Amino acid sequence: SAVDTEKQRILWGWRLTKTPQIRSTRIVAKSRLFEIEEVELHFANGHQAHYERLSGNAGGVLVVAVTEDGMILLVREYAVGVERYELGFVKGRVEIGESPQFAAAREMQEEIGFDAGELRLLATVSLTPAYSSYRTFIFLAMGLYESSLEGDEPEELETVPWALSNLERLRRRNDFTDARCLLATYLAHQALAHEDG
């Protein structure tokens, strides 16, 4: 009820605030992958501020691919941000005109040579909502079958099978650090446990 909702707002310290008005936007920097946009905001209290945000990308996908024998398929690839090879799940960009589900199927075929009979959306998460509208769509893929597409990676990716029963050890590895991948292990485990139950 409205009364209960108001009690929740008071309990958690939420305030009803009017969304700031965007007065203007302009691109201040641009690269092959990213655009940085300056946003002029006018707040309800009269304060004006300039924010910067990353723009120009529809988002990305991450896919937890599960085999019939209880393995998840990881990918080992070079991560230039941390300057080392990292283990992680299939992931990539949602291209213009693609649905997240189509992008997930395409990335699976490009990176591990499989497609899925079932792609289930587990969550949609933001990385840094204060600076970017970029979202990652996390999928669970089951009913795998061989199907490959040519990808755009500069070297062949290594597919690493990992037992679902040993996720805790995976989470402790120092080359498995992408926060989205860590979250995906919990989401997939929960979804599969619920299915078995």
The chain-level mean pLDDT equals 89
Overall geometry comes to: globular
Q: What are the low-pLDDT stretches, counting only 5+ consecutive residues below 50?
A: none
Count the E strands: 10
Gist?
With 197 residues, the protein is of the alpha+beta class.
List the keywords:
about 200 residues, alpha+beta, 7-stranded mixed beta sheet, 3-stranded antiparallel beta sheet, 4 helices, about 25% helix, globular
Task: Characterise this structure.
- There is one protein chain.
- With 197 residues, the protein is α+β, with helices and mostly antiparallel strands.
- Helix content is 24%, strand content 42%.
- The chain contains four helices and ten strands.
- It has helices at residues 2-12, 100-111, 167-172, 179-196; strands spanning 21-30, 35-42, 48-55, 60-66, 71-79, 84-88, 90-93, 114-126, 135-146, 158-163.
- The strands form two sheets. Strands 4, 5, 6, 7, 8, 9 and 10 form a seven-stranded mixed sheet that branches.
- Strand 5 and strand 6 (84-88) form a beta hairpin.
- The longest helix has 18 residues, at 179-196.
- The mean pLDDT is 89.
